[in-house]
Design a protein that fits this description.
alpha+beta; nine-stranded mixed β-sheet; 8 helices; about 30% strand
């Protein structure tokens, strides 16, 4: 597993494209769970609980779904996006996804790859050399890098290959969400609301987060760096414990040391925390709404911090969107239990706020090389 920690100050207005707090939602469009942990705060909790979103599930051929996606894009223009992924069936590992840029990514076995007859490349990991990836653009053909064969354009050859694949394989079980209100016209589709749960833990150790403990100055080295790493590690461990509702953070916890040993971050105070969890295929605009809510300038007397943790869809061949829209998606092995998550601790101030972000991916993910 690889983990990267970044920290910074959020001075821009909410929604600014250069604001890390808000760009995190756009760069992770394939999310299946979001947890929010905060010192109990009725006003902010009410605002968060007002957020709503839905996704769709259907069963149809990939060709029919792509026709729907292209029709949706044509009807809504740049304001409408279809994001989707197809799950593998019990007899194969082939999967695909459609990202917000309109690019279809196929991750298929050697037999399927040879049958399709489309140009792609194999995974670089030895144990997955027989799995091949194909990228196809459903939108502007000018984005296709023909000279390097990074993208294929969705033309007659590609459409025919997918139709032949559909005829041999049959329909897919598809999860999707939309960024517009256009009616879904896929036969057999069903609409689902995100599943939400709320949990309150009373009398727990709550980290008393100090800015200097979290945001590491650029010129620090030696022992100061070691102290910062230790504190950040304990802080995110606490966030994980709180998200799970672990009794280890409770003031009354008396677990025997030979069963479990845990020390909460210091300094800390005693109080109540609220955890809100959403599950489903979560639209990126919903995660964006969370960022807007916790950083809203209208929020008076905000809580001392808010922690947001998201779990990506491990079974999707793409989970991360690079900021450079001409780059192909980052290579990763799609596995249901693959590690791909991020956790952010945000502290609001009168003008903006500051944050610490931990991102983690599994060993078979090329996001950081």
């Amino acid at each position: 597993m690889k983990i990267v920690i970044t920290t910074g100050r959020s001075r821009e207005a909410p929604g600014s494209p250069t604001d890390k707090l808000h760009s995190i939602a756009r760069s992770h469009p394939f999310t299946q769970q979001v947890d929010i942990v905060l010192p109990s705060h009725s006003t902010l909790e009410e605002s968060l609980l007002e957020l709503k979103a839905a996704y769709w599930r259907c069963e149809c051929t990939l060709s029919d779904f792509l026709e729907f996606a292209k029709t949706h894009d044509n009807a809504t223009g740049s304001n409408g996006k279809v994001v989707a992924y197809g799950t593998a069936n019990p007899t194969e590992d082939d999967v695909w996804c459609l990202d917000p840029r309109g690019f279809l990514t196929l991750a298929v076995c050697k037999e399927t790859y040879e049958t399709l007859g489309l140009v792609g490349k194999s995974f670089p990991w030895k144990e997955h050399k027989t799995t091949h990836v194909v990228h196809i653009s459903l939108r502007d053909p000018r984005l296709v890098k023909d000279e390097s064969k990074v993208w294929l354009s969705y033309g007659t050859k590609e459409a025919d290959a997918i139709r032949r694949w559909d005829a041999a394989r049959g329909p897919w079980k598809i999860w999707c969400y939309l960024d517009s209100e256009l009616d879904v016209s896929i036969p057999g589709s069903a609409r689902y609301e995100l599943v939400r749960s709320v949990r309150i833990q009373e009398s727990v150790h709550i980290p008393d987060i100090q800015r200097d403990s979290v945001v590491l100055p650029g010129n620090c080295e030696g022992d100061r760096v070691d102290e910062w790493e230790d504190y950040i590690s304990s802080l995110f461990e606490w966030v994980g414990m709180a998200s799970l509702g672990s009794p280890r953070i409770s003031v009354s916890d008396r677990c025997e040391p030979y069963i479990a040993v845990y020390t909460h971050p210091t300094p800390s105070r005693i109080g109540n925390i609220t955890t809100i969890r959403w599950k489903g295929f979560i639209p990126s605009v919903f995660v964006q709404g969370i960022a807007d809510t916790i950083s809203s300038p209208n929020l008076q007397a905000p809580p001392s911090f808010v922690a947001v943790t998201a779990q990506c869809v491990g079974a999707s061949p793409v989970t991360y969107m690079p900021s450079d829209t001409t780059r192909p998606p980052i290579l990763r092995v799609p596995e249901p239990d693959a590690e791909d998550a991020w956790s952010l601790v945000y502290v609001k101030e009168e003008a903006g706020g500051w944050w610490t972000l931990a991102e983690s991916v599994g060993g078979r993910d090329r996001r950081w090389g």
